[in-house]
Design goal:
Elements lengths: L9 E3 L20 E3 L1 E3 L8 E3 L10 H7 L11 E3 L2 H17 L8 E7 L12 E9 L2 E13 L6 H6 L4 H13 L25 E5 L3 E7 L14 E7 L8 H19 L6 E2 L2 E2 L2 E2 L6 E5 L2 E3 L6 E5 L4 E5 L24
Parallel strand pairs: 1-5, 2-11, 8-9
Antiparallel strand pairs: 3-4, 6-7, 7-8, 9-10, 10-11, 12-13, 14-15, 15-16, 17-18
Helix pairs in contact: 2-5
Length: 344
Amino acid sequence: MLWQHPTNYTYQTHLESGSDKKWSKAFPPIAILNVHTRTLGPNHNNAIEARIDDILLPEMEDDAVRIAQPVYPPNPRQWRLCMEEDAINWFHTEISNPVLALFTTYPNLLQASHDKPIDLEVSHNETVDIGYSVSLVGQPANRRHLVIGEFKRCLITAAQWQAGRLTGAQRNFSQELRGRSRPLTWVADFPEPCDNRYAYKYACPQILSFDGETLLMLQFRAAKVADIKDANCPVDCWVIPRANVGGTPLRYALYRFLVQGFRRCQGCTANPGLQLNDVTAHRRYFFNGVPVWKINGTETDRPWGYQRRLHCDSGAFYWADSSGNALMDDNGAIVWDTLAYWSA
């Protein structure tokens, strides 16, 4: 199902909406775009291919478990995309719902509309149109956003995003998307100073937008939360049309994007005091949860040949040697890198 395109007939009216939120002016526009989509040319109906495997983290052991879950196609029907709500309904029915069928257990994702920041103690009037979140096993209150998103109506000028040069309405829209990714006062494991004027606590570097015609996926390559608001923060960008026969399916793109957000959430549960060979990690990248060590002046995510492996029975990362054998501590216990997200 992930590699299939929607087959229901869809008529697009091309009516447009705008984006000019005053609060977004406080955030710098996105200027450093690393675009990872390309056209396959006229011999392939100008289909768009998304580079995913070498930009996002690779598929791991739990991907095979998820992809084995049963998924059923949407019921046959026709679509007429006129209002923003039509695009929302289409996206949920044709793209999001089939993908979420893979996330019922490994892990169990929550998708919510008009989602607020997760810190319920903070009064907050702003919302995002859609939020995908996940909780630690047995801890429903310990929830984090994987991906957040905004819906529009034929607003995205795909050519500008694909070229990596934004002007006018697209520039304004990029400020809104950056602002939606803004953290609030406190984020577990990633404390940041407060800016009460823009109280967004999503702390989510993976953000998408769908306008009925184009799926735009952005990843702020933030080493820490504060980097999201930095004009110099590089941003990975994928621009994928709704009608894309022969190109990358939207379902597959969304699936990999959600998994990337999940990897970040896994990294957020890591023990900051973890040591390998009595050395603590130099840093852990916020946008993907990967720890790196600095050895002889060089950063590496495989110190001394060790590697992180995924434990399929729990959704936790553990450390293994170059042969794949789990590392053991002095007490004979597995050296875990992160906490569990589901039960064995």
